[in-house]
Specification:
270 residues, 8 strands, alpha/beta
Length: 270
């Protein structure tokens, strides 16, 4: 019989304690979903230091959803915010998943998907870049029954105003081109996070991304599965007037890497 040294036991205990602190916790505050009947719609909203926008955005989202159905849920994934984001969300009728550390948008969305109960699942940003009043437009093709995934596109809008910086527009078009060549499917805005899915469609994905590359990972997997999809125009304010959480160099590299990784996997299967 081997007896573990006290020092080793202490190290293992400290490791497990630190691991438990890093795991996400689920908190319910004035939650509108009582669990007796699954909600029709789940809205998942990752948030990192969005105290300026998240409160008003949640109010608008609730109003938009009530026009569709009273049976909905909003899941805010607070991804390690160190401002007042968490406190503001606690005052709203939402479910909160709190990550003690900033793991990234991909991780936050994946945690949100695990807790979503709705048959229709919407993803949107918490910084005000997406208009919750457009949620009915996203859901309309899904509710009609012929489409399984709907992608919002900022570049299909009829307006002739800029929706992002010239650098971001160039990067988006590059990613659109690469993904089109990889999947033989056309997308006009692969990096817009305003999307809607059928629950069964979403359950077929095997997502691993931690950061903003999750948008690309989702599109590539759905396209490879020949999932029926469509794009619809969505409104977006001029984002370059506000500070973004996106690191153009690091996140751009991750997105490119995810595209090339998918390409290598595709070649390996041929």
């Amino acid at each position: 019989m081997v007896v573990e040294e006290p020092q080793t036991q202490h190290k293992n205990t400290a490791y497990h304690n630190s691991l438990e602190k890093a795991l996400p916790t689920i908190q319910l505050y004035n939650h509108n979903f009582n669990g007796s009947e699954p909600p029709e719609i789940s809205v998942i909203m990752p948030a990192f230091n969005e105290e300026r926008a998240v409160g008003h955005l949640l109010d608008r989202t609730q109003k938009a959803l009530l026009k569709i159905t009273p049976n909905y849920e909003i899941i805010v994934v607070d991804d390690g915010s160190h401002d007042q984001t968490l406190d503001i969300c606690r005052e709203k009728h939402v479910t909160i998943i709190h990550n003690p550390y900033n793991w990234g948008k991909g991780y936050a969305l994946r945690e949100g998907f695990k807790q979503a109960h709705g048959d229709l699942i919407v993803t949107m940003d918490s910084d005000g870049d997406h208009h919750p009043e457009d949620i009915p437009l996203l859901l309309q093709p899904l509710r009609a029954g012929k489409i399984e995934a709907v992608f919002g596109s900022r570049f299909l809008h009829n307006g002739n105003f800029p929706v992002t910086t010239a650098v971001n527009t160039f990067g988006n078009r590059l990613f659109n081109f690469l993904i089109r060549n990889l999947t033989n499917r056309k997308f006009t805005d692969t990096q817009c996070g305003f999307r809607a899915f059928n629950r069964n469609c979403l359950s077929t994905l095997q997502l691993n991304s931690q950061g903003y590359d999750i948008e690309t990972e989702m599109i590539v997997q759905l396209a490879r599965q020949h999932t029926p999809y469509c794009e619809i125009p969505v409104r977006s304010p001029i984002t370059y007037l506000r500070k973004s959480n996106i690191n153009r160099l690091k996140d751009g590299f991750r997105i490119l890497f995810s595209i090339f990784k998918a390409r290598i996997r595709a070649l390996a299967k041929t």
